[in-house]
Amino acid sequence: MSQSKELRSQIQQIVCPRELTEGTEVCLEGNPFSTLLFRKPHQGEIITLTDVSGKEFRGRIVKLIQDRAHVYVFEELRDLTELPYDIFLFQALPEKERMELIIQKGTELGVKVIVPFKSNHSISLKVRESRQPKAHRWQYIAVKATKQCRRACVPYIVPYCSFEQALDIARSLELKILLLENEKNRLSSLLKSLPPPRSVALMVGPEGGWDEEEVERGKAVGFITLGLGERILRTETAAIAACAILQYEWGGL
Fold first, then answer.
1. Residue 250 scores a pLDDT above 70
2. Residue whose C-alpha is closest to residue 86's, from 101, 105, 106, 102
3. Which among 130, 135, 148 has a CA at the least distance from the CA of 100?
4. Which of 85, 129, 133, 165 lies 20 to 30 Å (CA to CA) from residue 22?
5. Could you confirm whether domain 86-250 is CATH 3.40.470.10?
6. Which CATH architecture fits 12-76?
7. Residue ranges covered by each domain of the chain
8. DSSP letters of 107-175?
9. What pLDDT, on a 0 to 100 scale, did the predictor assign at position 83?
10. pLDDT (average), residues 100-129
11. So what's the pLDDT on residue 39?
12. Distances from the Cα of 95 to the Cαs of 78, 123, 180, 205, 209, in angstroms?
């Protein structure tokens, strides 16, 4: 099994083992209930759940007890909250609270997996945590953002890793994009000429920029370099803008 497939299995999605209809009540037990608990739910909360046919519904938790939850299904969603392609966001670890912002906004923009990694010019997790110990909250931030935007899936936040490990994760993904300053080939131009892939790796560099060696290593595993224009964007701006551009061109916004 590829690393990317293993990571997909970590994505939390409430799937009911039968077809759902509006105006009915469903009891979540077993795995669907465990998945619900991952979101730290409360009675009266509105959630998004999926049935066996892949349709998405909105429901309200009417009863929450020790081993099950009763949910009143009140709406079938005309458009799915989840994208028909998987976005894996590879983010060189930024300083201060920018990683938390990227996780929050990436979740709202439909990212399925977020991979924080160490590049040559990025801060290390050890140094960042000595100043602001927040990495332990990354998955919880994704949960909160999922609840806020009512997505069906909670993205998986991969444990901080090396650049080489990030490349290994990306290796089996269909389209691999590395954002590069001063690159004349634009992300938006490429997307207009391509149909949506099944999966896309979007790699965003650090505030200090990429080393040439890192760019070449990325190309060696299939990454193509693309730019976002003549302005120099902060790393968190680049990540958010690129995710939005993907969905503007391929659907999702």
1. yes
2. 106
3. 135
4. 85
5. no
6. Beta Barrel (2.40)
7. 12-76, 86-250
8. HHTT-SEEEEEE-TTSPPHHHHHHH---GGGHHHHHHHHHHHHT-SEEPEE---EEHHHHHHHHTT-SE
9. 94
10. 95
11. 93
12. 40, 6, 19, 12, 13
98: exposed, middle or buried (Cβ count in 10 Å: 0-12, 13-18, 19+) = middle
The H or E element that residue 188 is part of is helix 187-192
- pTM, full prediction: 0.94
* Burial (CB count within 10 angstroms: exposed 0-12, middle 13-18, buried 19+), residue 174: middle
Length of the chain, please?
253
DSSP state of 94: P
Cβ atoms within 10 Å of 241's Cβ, excluding its own: 17
Question: Hey, which residues does 56 pair with through a beta bridge?
Answer: 50
Contact status, residue 27 vs residue 38, Cβ threshold 8 Å? no
Please name the residues in contact with 174: beta carbons below 8 A apart, sequence gap of 6 or more: 197, 198, 199, 200
Residue showing tokens 């037990």: 29
Q: How far apart are CA 111 and CA 243, in angstroms?
A: 8
Measured CA to CA, the distance from residue 155 to residue 142 in angstroms comes to 6
Q: Residue 149, exposed/middle/buried by CB under 10 A (0-12, 13-18, 19+)?
A: middle
